[in-house]
Amino acid sequence: MAAIVQLRPYPDISSERCVSADPGGPKFVQNPYQFYDSLHASGTPAFWNQYGHWVFPSFKDVSALLRDKRFGREILHVATREEIGMPEPKPHTADFDLTEQYSLLNLEPPGHTRLRTLVNRAFVSRHVEQLRPRILKLANEMIDAFHDQDSVDLIKAFAAPIPAIIIAEMIGLPAESAPQLLAWSNRMVAMYMFGLTPEVELDANAAAAEFTKYLRGVIAERRRQPQQDLLTHMLTTEQKGERLSDDEVLSTAILLLNAGHEATVHTTGNGVKSILESGLDPKTLFATEDQTAATVEECLRFDAPLHLFTRYALSDMEYDGIALRRGDVIGMMMGAANRDPVRFANANSFDPFRSDGANVSFGAGIHFCIGAPLARIELQVALSTLFQRLPKLRLAEPPKYNDVYPFHGLEKLMVRWD
User: Fold this and answer.
1) 48: how many CB neighbours lie within 10 A of its CB?
2) pLDDT in the model for residue 259
């Protein structure tokens, strides 16, 4: 996801509607849900001072706004930079900006429709279901590698490698490239986090330049020697006589590589933490395929991997009594929506057996996560295999969340199983 920030100050906002919480503060990083509870208690949208725009914490609003065509991820197709106060692109982030230029998460129709149509076929449920044996094999290999140790950081040893290898192989990159892809991705996604600094921008841009150079080499190779992979598919498939340009393929491949593991890594770690802290018997949570799926959905709801997603107002309008100008930003608080007490009974309780299960962790509308079917299968296989192989799994030390808002994931997850 690209970072969208409020471009100009709002007119004076009533102090009763304003809230303050530092997304990088230690208390917030470790538990943002106390802040979300206070927002739910007010029952209305709020103006988040640190972000400088309106945010919507309710499940109803988030679900509706993610689908509302009056808002979009692009704005320059309906307004000039001068009109909305958008500065010119920064020269020192040119390489990073190139990778974002044709990102599916930044485009609106018709460009979004064209790109998504060409890529979507690879991620439909019936196709990714065929990857289940490969995911199972990887999960067992990862566990085999640390099984004889006394303890391990489950994020580095298990949660991160599996989705990185799977998405790399789908695109057509060797499994051995996964560690380097992870390193580039981690540096690039820092651009989306709260409290961006020039140093972070420079490092993310350098990572983007390295990533781009690598992929351009692979793209050139695929043009010479096509393979049975997603990269070749994107290069050769036509729609109405048109093919994707190299820059479009580049943006799409980088988005899929970055987004194809980020959420799954966070959800795997957060999910293991939730299960272990719940005191529930893992055998019951993964007893059947249906219950395994329900457990994964509750992991996605209870401790979501992405907590805030922003969009631009495409015209002057009023929403729920809030006056918005063209170019104003709104924030959909997915992490808060998943804990909305109006929508969920005992919203702050981890309950894989709940009858009111749902979540907005993968978004909604045209930007619904294209990799959701793959992520769900990865989570189902990885979590069930982990607890089957290590039935005595337990926390070796208190888990600590990483300062990566609007993402939400663990810095490390030390576990034991003896």
Assistant:
1) 22
2) 80
With contact defined as beta carbons under 8 Å apart, do 83 and 362 qualify? no
Q: For 369-401, how does the pLDDT look when each residue is reduced to its tens digit (9 = 90+)?
A: 988 999 999 999 999 999 999 999 999 999 999
Site of tokens 């994107």: 234
Decide if domain 19-416 falls under CATH 1.10.150.120: no
Q: What would you report as the CA-atom Rg of the chain, rounded to the nearest whole angstrom?
A: 21
| pLDDT at res. 243 | 81
| 132 vs 201: CA distance, rounded Å | 37
Q: What is the H or E stretch that residue 318 is in?
A: strand 317-319
**Rounded to the nearest 10 degrees, how much is the dihedral formed by the CA atoms of 382, 384, 389, 393?**
90
Is the confidence at residue 365, as pLDDT, over 60? yes
Residue 319 tokens read as 């929403």
Distance CA 341, CA 357 (A): 12
Q: Which helix (H) or strand (E) holds 48?
A: strand 46-48
Residue 117 corresponds to which amino acid?
T
pLDDT band at 258 (very low <50, low <70, confident <90, very high): confident
Q: 3-state DSSP call for residue 228?
A: coil
Residue 139 has pLDDT above 70, yes or no: yes
44's tokens: 């209305």
What's the burial of 80, exposed, middle or buried (CB within 10 Å: 0-12/13-18/19+)? Answer: exposed
Out of 139-143, 179-183, 266-270, least confident range: 179-183
Q: How far apart are CA 167 and CA 374, in angstroms?
A: 9
129: Cα separation from own chain's centroid: 21
**What are the domain boundaries of the chain?**
19-416
Prior bond to 174 cis, omega within 30?
no
